[in-house]
């Protein structure tokens, strides 16, 4: 038998990683990393659009903030707090993520088709940057909402 | 698929977290399997059967989950 649990009838159920904590310094390093990476990306975007420096810097920061801070957390924090499941590929979360991603893809595809048809019929000109930013936001929000809905439905 | 995983787990006085740790999956995976809302992969089903020292068909049976 690879595992033998001790009888503990009144134990509070907890995740196997719940008692792991990262030092405060690692959180500070993650925040510093995220801030520096975000500022760097926003400066690069702003430098390529000097006529709208602050607008470009803001858009660059908005786009870079989430992945930069997530990467910082991944490098400095979660290495101390999360243990990779030995068979994570068999876990239900992977199925939920695939379902959410597939649904979000179809949503974005359908939205793009409908918008393209509408723009052609109405003969409207829309800035490509705006369209791309909307698609990024839509796909991310759609995938997250779908994942939460699938998870809620499965666990309720 | 229907299953009696919860009954077998409780017979051993294991928590869902204990079983998840033994199987190397998340606790949500065990919860979803017990509620018959997630059919495990074949390797995971074999591992579950091995963990409880029985055959797969002793735990999982054909049928539409509730």
Structure notes:
The complex is a heterodimer of chains A (156) and B (66). Chain A is mostly helical and 156 residues long. In chain A, 71% of the residues lie in helices and 0% in strands. The model of chain A is unreliable at 1-18 (pLDDT under 50). Chain B is mainly alpha-helical and 66 residues long. Chain B has 5 helices and 2 strands, in the order E-H-H-H-H-H-E. The chains are: A mainly alpha (156), B mainly alpha (66). The interface between A and B is medium-sized, with 24 and 30 residues.
- Shape call of chain A: flat
Strand content of chain B: 5-15%
Number of strands of chain B: 2
Instruction: Point out poorly predicted stretches of chain B.
Output: none
Largest sheet of chain A: none
Gyration radius of chain A, rounded: 22 Å
Order of helices and strands of chain A: HHHHH
Biggest beta-sheet profile of chain B: 2 strands, antiparallel
What class, by secondary structure content of chain B? mainly alpha
What's a concise summary of this model?
Chain A is mainly alpha-helical and 156 residues long.
